[in-house]
Task: structure prediction
Amino acid sequence: MRIRVVPNSKKFGIQCVRSAMGAKIVARVVSPPEHNKANKELLKKLKNKYRLKARIVRGAASREKEVEFELPEEEVILRLCGDGRDWSNAQD
Result:
């Protein structure tokens, strides 16, 4: 699953956006992008806050990351975004 990471944010948060391409996940992390700090924060928050075990499989040095979860994608989206009522709509 692709996740866009925005480092140096004021607080941690996950934003789910609907687009023509499907679900788009944006993760705002407090940590800076240096020394793998933002990636570590993302994985730690996914594990502790959302009970999702994950690993970054591609894009460790990029803001666009390919993240692999142990659960099916539908379950991951449900945990991160809820039932869809809180989603934003993207204009692609």
